Each structure stands twice: as structure tokens, then as C-alpha cells.
TrEMBL record:
Residues 1-453 form the Major facilitator superfamily (MFS) profile domain. InterPro entries: MFS (IPR011701), MFS_dom (IPR020846), MFS_trans_sf (IPR036259). This is Major facilitator superfamily (MFS) profile domain-containing protein. GO terms for cellular component: membrane.
């Protein structure tokens, strides 16, 4: 980001918008695109979303100024928001309950850490030996490849929900609900993103948070009205939250993502800002997480059909909590990487790739086939909101500790400096916050999911013969792959 800032004349105080512009549109449009995909076709939205992401990414590095650059980053987020929930929906509708479905969701979960490590390594090498613009070009080419592969590989559905319905009763998108939830999430995430930059006492930050909460509340009321009257299919059926375990799954997702994302962010701060490592050296320290993610997918795909859900979720949350704790404890910062940083990297991703497929599979099995993309959108939206809230609080804690140690006001706390004791204490304080979030997620799991059964177990007696034959073919294909 510093290189981009220098090249495009972006001041340091606004550099975070290179990330935030993308994250805002991605998090805010998930529910909208999830519902659109369920109505008009998941394959169609996935292909278009991938192509849109590729085109905007390719154009991004060639725009001349800050505003255009941030705008295109936001447009990239729109493509990703269309892509991610539809991918989950495609997996949910393609595979019947089977071991193959467990494999599919486990591999999907492993894609994030593995893709993150490979992407960061490629970006690090490209940025070091060529222009940063080539990083965007490489990502765009990958996006075009994914779009083309999806077009030729993903089979088109026999009929979409829109096509199945009679001409007079065809479902349509709840546009009012889409505007309410998208505007509410946009206002909330924007306020949380900017709060630590302009200060939480800035009047418009509080006003924007209140407006966001009002919009989200109106969205919930409107969805309940639509669900009761049946005049229009709601974007989200509020009644699903009456299931205590479903509500607990969403809460677990938010808390878990707060802890896991916070760990990744502050581990990066520790390596790059406190230890003064360059981006490539920092990325190398995350390589074990990618390897762990790939290995964990193979293990968890087997455990999903054998081990009770609450045990897997508890193990996952406990691992992420321990990882955050290792970066919070007063371990001498010059201690070798192999002693505590490596175990933290391994445990964090093992926990993520244990928890994530459990929650996705649980959500998939809790919703009808017609709402699979929406389910994927809901899980990801909870994660994005959790990420924003968790990181905002962690940053506030870090800044307050640094200000106290430096004897200045919060507004004058400054940034993390290489080898600086107050900086280290601030990072550790944020680590304790991330640890507490992981423990809270663990408590929710132990209270809500005991006796919930095995989420990946298939009851063959409840499947009709055709589904059993399809399941058998899927499992054979998964094993061969």
C-alpha cells in the first residue's frame, strides 16, 4: 500500500481506503447478491461476478488519481460479493448430503488460507521485481480464468426459481429490503472503519451508527411483514433465527471471525511494523498457514461425518484462541519464530478450517435448496460485520494502550514503530481482545451445540434411491479427484 500511495499521491491517513473500499462493498452487497442468485441462477451470477471482478481489477492500476482508484476497488468488491455466496450456493445444491459434500465444503474452506498465502507470495515477488501494477494484472488474469472455467465446467441448472414459477407468480427481488439492508450495512461498516481514523467522539460517527442500526431494524421489520403476508418473497426469512442453534451458528461465525481476522491483522503488524520485516519476509512467515489449511481440509472432511459438531467447533475456536493468546503473552519478541509464532500460525488456520466448514455445512442443511446462496451470503455477512466490529475495538484498545505508555492523548498516539516498547504493548493488548473473542465463541458453542449431532453424517434411510445413487457417484468422483 505505501508504494501505491506514493505513486498515486495518496496521503498515509487515507491509505486504508485501498482496503476499506473493497471490504465495504463486499460486505454490504452479500445478502443482495445471494438472493438474486437464488432467484435468477447461481451459475449466471457466479460467472458474471467473476468477470466483473476481473475487468475492474485489470482497469484499476491504470487510473490516474486516488478517487478513481478507490472507486474501482469498491467495484471489485461488488464482483466478489456476487461470487462468494453463489459459490457456496452451487456447492450446496450440487451435492446431496454425502461424504462428497463434506469434501466440497472442506476444500472450499481451505481455499482462503491457501489462496491467501499463494497470492501474497506471488504479489510479493511481482511487486519486488516488477511494478505493483502487475499484481493487479495477475489477479485479473486469474479472475478471467475462473470466469471461463465456471462457464464451461459448472452445469447450468435445469430451471431457476424464476423459470419454475408460473408467469403470474414469479418471484422477484425485494428491492426495498435490498436498499434497507445494504444502506444499513454500508453506514455501519463505514462508521466502524472511519471511527479509529477521525476519532470516536466525532459527532457524525455516532450519528451514522445510529442511522445504520435504524435501517437494519427497519429491514428486519419489513422482512417479518413480507414473510407473514406472503406478498413478496423476503430477502431473508427472519423466522429462521427462531432456531436457537441457527442463531448460535451466526453468533459463533461473527465472534470467530472477529478473533481470527484480528489475529491475522495483528500478526502482520508485529512482523512488518514492529519487527520491521519487508512484505516478502512477512509473507514467508505465513506459509505454514497455507500448508496447514490444505492438510486440515483432508482431515476435517473425514471428521465431519464422524465427530459431533460441537466438538469440532470447540476445537476450532480453542485453537484460534490459543493463537491469539500466543501473540498477547509477554514472550520476548526476539524469541525464535519456531518457538511460538509457528505454532500460532498452524493452530489459527487449523482452527479456521475446522470451524468454517462446520458452520457452512450447518447453514446449508438448515435452509431449503432455494435459499442456498442466501445462506452463503448470510454466513459471510456475519463474518464481515464481525470483522469490522472486532477490528474497530482492537484498534481502539491498541491506540489507548500506546497513548498511555507514551504519555499522550489518544489522537496523538501515533503508529506502530520498529522495536518500540509502547507499540509492542499495544499489539499485545489487542491480542488479549482477540483471545477473549475466541473464548466467547467457544462458550457459545459449548452452550448451544451440545447434542446437536453430527452435521456431516448422512442418514441413508431418509434419502430416496436416486439421491443415494447420485451421492455414491459424487463420492467416487471426490475420491478419484
Amino acid at each position: 500500500m505505501p508504494t501505491i500511495g506514493q505513486d498515486r499521491g495518496i496521503p498515509e491517513t487515507r491509505l486504508q481506503w485501498i482496503i476499506s473500499a473493497y471490504a465495504l462493498t463486499f460486505g454490504c452487497f452479500l445478502l443482495f447478491w445471494g438472493r438474486v442468485a437464488d432467484i435468477y441462477g447461481k451459475r449466471k451470477i457466479f460467472v458474471c461476478g467473476s468477470a466483473w471482478f476481473a475487468v475492474t481489477t485489470l482497469v484499476n492500476p491504470f487510473v490516474p488519481n486516488e478517487i478513481a482508484f478507490d472507486l474501482l476497488r469498491a467495484l471489485q468488491g461488488l464482483g466478489a460479493a456476487a461470487n462468494v455466496p453463489t459459490a457456496i450456493g452451487i456447492l450446496g445444491t450440487t451435492f446431496p448430503p454425502s461424504k462428497a459434500k463434506n469434501y466440497a465444503f472442506s476444500c472450499f474452506a481451505a481455499g482462503a488460507p491457501l489462496g491467501g498465502v499463494v497470492g501474497n507470495l506471488v504479489a510479493g515477488f511481482v511487486a519486488q521485481y516488477a511494478s505493483w501494477k502487475w499484481v493487479f494484472v495477475v489477479i485479473a488474469l486469474a479472475g478471467f480464468a475462473i470466469s471461463a472455467a465456471a462457464f464451461f465446467v459448472i452445469p447450468p441448472p435445469k430451471q431457476t426459481i424464476q423459470e419454475q414459477a408460473s408467469p403470474g407468480s414469479r418471484p422477484s427481488v425485494d428491492w426495498l429490503g435490498a436498499v434497507l439492508v445494504t444502506s444499513g450495512l454500508l453506514a455501519l461498516l463505514f462508521a466502524l472503519t472511519e471511527g479509529n481514523v477521525v476519532g470516536w467522539r466525532t459527532p457524525w460517527v455516532s450519528v451514522l451508527i445510529i442511522v445504520a442500526l435504524v435501517l437494519v431494524a427497519l429491514f428486519v421489520v419489513w422482512q417479518r411483514y413480507l414473510e407473514k403476508t406472503g406478498k413478496l418473497a423476503p430477502i431473508m426469512k427472519v423466522s429462521i433465527f427462531r432456531n436457537p442453534q441457527f442463531s448460535a451458528a451466526m453468533a459463533t461465525m461473527a465472534l470467530f471471525f472477529m478473533s481470527f481476522n484480528g489475529f491475522l491483522v495483528y500478526a502482520t503488524y508485529f512482523y512488518q511494523d514492529y519487527q520491521g520485516l519487508d512484505p516478502l519476509q512477512t509473507t514467508l512467515r505465513f506459509i505454514p498457514s497455507g500448508i496447514t489449511g490444505f492438510t486440515t481440509a483432508a482431515i476435517v472432511s473425514q471428521l465431519l461425518a464422524r465427530v459431533p459438531t460441537y466438538i469440532l467447533l470447540a476445537i476450532g475456536d480453542a485453537c484460534v484462541s490459543v493463537s491469539a493468546l500466543l501473540f498477547a503473552l509477554p514472550i520476548p519478541p526476539d524469541t525464535t519464530y519456531w518457538a511460538w509464532s509457528l505454532p500460532a500460525m498452524i493452530l489459527a488456520v487449523f482452527g479456521a478450517d475446522t470451524t468454517w466448514p462446520c458452520l457452512i455445512l450447518f447453514t446449508s442443511r438448515s435452509l431449503p435448496q432455494a435459499d442456498q446462496a442466501l445462506g452463503g451470503a448470510l454466513v459471510n455477512a456475519m463474518g464481515q460485520v464481525g470483522r469490522a466490529i472486532g477490528l474497530a475495538v482492537a484498534t481502539a484498545i491498541q491506540t489507548a494502550v500506546m497513548a498511555r505508555e507514551r504519555g499522550v492523548s489518544v489522537q496523538s498516539a501515533g503508529s506502530v514503530e520498529v522495536g518500540d516498547a509502547p507499540s509492542l504493548l499495544g499489539i499485545r493488548a489487542a491480542g488479549y481482545w482477540n483471545f477473549s473473542l475466541g473464548i466467547l465463541a467457544l462458550i457459545v458453542v459449548l452452550l448451544a451445540f451440545r447434542g446437536s449431532g453430527i452435521v456431516g453424517k448422512v442418514d441413508a434411510q431418509k434419502l430416496d434411491p436416486q439421491v443415494q445413487r447420485d451421492s455414491g457417484r459424487d463420492e467416487e468422483a471426490a475420491v478419484k479427484a
